Amino acid sequence: MKGRRRLPAGDTTSSKYRGADGRWHARVTMGTRLDGRPERKHISRSSKSELDRAVRALERSRDTGQYSWTESDPTLGQWLEHWLENVLPSTVRWKTLSTYRSQMRVHVVPALGPVRLSQLRPETLEQHYRRLLDAGHSASLVHAVHRVLRSGLNEAVRRQRLVSNPAMVARPPRHEVTPLTKGECLAILAVARTRRNSARWSVALALGLRQGEALGIKWADIDFEAGTLRIQRAVQRHTWEHGCSTNQNCGPNCGGKRGADCPARRGGGIRLVETKTSAPKRSIAVPPPLLHELRIHRREQAQEGLRAGPAWARELDLAFTDEAGRAMDSARDWRDWKSILRAAGVRNARLHDARHTAATLLLVQGVDIRTVMAIMGWTEMATAQRYAHAVDDLRVEAARQIGTALWPETPQAGHHDTADG
């Protein structure tokens, strides 16, 4: 049996000495830095025997490949800043990156930023989640923060800044989302038919598209003959940045606090972007009644464009637009949704709850989970489990199927058993 390859003596040297402070110190060579210099870890103990044990433990972790790279043991704030600015930008969309940055800088770094990665524990995160809830934040926001932290710390593990990810063990608070009922959906659609862009809300409830995806649909994406819709892009609102020169001490030279106030602002506004880079472009089947609504909407939009004349942005070819044919602002789209809920007498639901609703309705209709994942654009089963809620209809159907399988001769619900007269 071949043994582990022995490292050169220079790569395993440990030096020990007693310092002027009376404590015992050691510097253990743990490997080589990127610049070729040896990476040496300093440790200190009150006695020589304690130091010897600590050195042996470090050397074992080095020799077995379990050592976590802790040259500087960065704080959580330092690591998140590095992850958000240097690792993520090349792998996720602008909107995702912007959301992650906001969540970490607002809800994590002020409280946990100074904590060293080596000192981060599951309990540290759980206590922080509780503080966020006590401060009035929703469970859905806390869950979102937890997912971003888990992703960022997974990267720290991959790069050997951490031995294990405490966010994989920490339990976020329970987050139950109640999808809209069939009655609520019908009430919403009844009100939506009296509003401009009425088919927009049929698309939300029937297909469960993300908000940006729905607003990014072009007429060319819809094949009315085949009854399919191709999801290829999304509408996003980007934050404006300062275009003026910036003085390091005094801030932007224009004097404005926000990038939107800068006369030379750049990079912001409403944009059409490609859908998630990690997800393949997907084509989904459209129910015939929805195709009928979309045909009506296309005729109404064409008439609106004729009335607007040259001011109509025909080149965009978007299915859901503002009064000038331009891409719809997501904030306005959100306000329209809230207005419809109030007019329909429906509880105050998030627009994203329409996506939960669509997934649940598909399951209630007996569509298998893999097909639901393809329709919704999910790539991980864990995501599907967050959205697919076990509503009463599903529980009743599951009980009926079990009864049919185990007692095939027994009358099912709806049939009268006359054995007792």
From TrEMBL:
Keywords: DNA integration, DNA recombination, DNA-binding. It comes from the Bacteria. GO terms for molecular function: DNA binding. Residues 1-22 are annotated as: Disordered. Residues 74-157 form the Core-binding (CB) domain. CDD domains: INT_ICEBs1_C_like. InterPro entries: CB, DNA_brk_join_enz, Integrase-like_cat_sf, Integrase_catalytic, Integrase_recombinase_N, Integrase_SAM-like_N, Tyrosine_recombinase_XerCD. SUPFAM superfamilies: DNA breaking-rejoining enzymes (SSF56349). Coiled coil: none annotated. PROSITE patterns: CB, TYR_RECOMBINASE. Residues 175-401 form the Tyr recombinase domain. GO terms for biological process: DNA integration; DNA recombination. PANTHER family: INTA PROTEIN, PHAGE INTEGRASE-RELATED. This is Putative integrase.
